[in-house]
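hi! just following up on the protien thing from before. the input was this:
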Amino acid sequence: MRVKHLANFQLCMDVEILHGGENFTLAVIYPTTFPDTPPIVMPHGEILLSDHQYGPGGELCLQWRPDNWDPAVTGAMMVESAYSLIAAERSSDGEVAAVPSEHRSSLGAELRFESWRLIVPEGTWEPLERQLPEAVLEISLTITARRSHRVAHLRSIGAQGNEVWLSPQPAPSAPGIRTGYILRTAQDMSVLALHGGGEFKDLAECVPELSSLFERSDWPFLIVLEKSGRKTAFDIVRSNNGYPFLVPYRIVEEEGLAQRSASNRESVSMNRVAIVGCGSIGSKVATSLARAGVRKFLLVDEDIFLAGNLVRNELDAWAIGWHKVDALADRVGQIATDTEIETRRVALGSQTSALAMESTLESIGECDLIVDATANPTSFNLCAGAAKRHGKPMIWAEVFGGGIGGIIARARPNTDPYPLAARNQITTWCDEHGIPWQTETGNPYEISGDDKPPFIADDADISVVAAHATRFALDILQGGKTSFPHSAYAIGLKKAWIFEAPFDTWPIDLQPMGPWEEPVAAHCEEDIRTLMSDLIDEESS
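and the predicted 3d structure came back as:
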């Protein structure tokens, strides 16, 4: 055994293991993080000693690894583990034996050195079962790039306008476009799987099914589905010598999106939600609802997204200079492909035409849920009027200046007081505590007026209140019995005002005030027209 120091001050011991008349020279390296992490055991030179090794010359995967390391394990015990592995894989008759692996690799670890990846959504291959067993079908892909890495997203299978499959997933923003083919075949295409990439001069001869594809000026992206179940994917480009150059892509088959969601996505997707105010809270509520399955939105805001908004908004630098409603619509479209989004570039109560304001308020009232995320009294009053007039539930949220917390509330028709009455009850509840505000500005979130001091709260403060408002929204959209015993809550984020500590939550009891006004039924519209016509005729006469 020989001990030495490496250039980076790591301690290294060279040891020799004798087995079956063969010497194996190993280096046992103690990293600078030892004893928090295990020693590294690896051979000298580019030698592949074991199937449990990170490539030729790489580290051996032994009994003790970073995932189960115990500082009580000694270097001698690591050498013993290496000997056991080498001996177990080399039987006395000279045959190579397989040693069961305890290694549980994650997808991320498997793809760590896979620079080119093809993302395939769940259920992609099912429509192909109805096609001919041997067929060539057109495909389209989008490609995203990050330095030397490429990720391809399968977007469609079949000729344009006659697709047999379309991706249900959103397309990445600003992608590259690629076309190609899927080859379904009963032939053995192991020549492709074994080739592994690079220049392939005899590709057309080895795989005659592909010869016609090289008559094109641009060579295709290719996915091969064999009857055995093996799937391979390559981007085929022209080498400097004019020969096909195969770039292999690792196929990553995704699981369904709904498997990660706790919401009743079917019920949620049937509802249309109005988000009034697409700033910090509104943008976060909209995207969170989209992730939970909401697909129909009305977005209302007249503001422009500027660089200063980056500190606490769901949108990023791509949105700078755009109206918030348009940028947020694009953001939601990046989360779900099958969305129906209407945008209105107005602020409720702003200086715009009466016709545009009436149209916007009627669109808000036609939604199944109204979310006021402006904390603006005028906007609130107009949303409240639409909710009461149309008999629709409403949710609102405010964050207190200074980031001390916020309030979320809901008003459900004929269950809670109508929104204006509910807000008055909340104001009375706050006043009854008799404790003055202890915030830096004393102002609620996004109070209007250029002469007001800037609103101070971190993105984390906004996110907490927005998340609570989203849970309120989903509770309503899913229907059934509510999960919330109260319809308003004051949520503390620091010790201030009535809050004794961060996350100190105060439920607010809202007292019912009888049924809301009945919404005007569609069958009454003709009666109203008749009445108005009669009144006008009498006045004229």
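Confidence is low (pLDDT under 50) at residues 439-454.
The CA atoms of residues 266 and 293 lie 8 Å apart.
cheers
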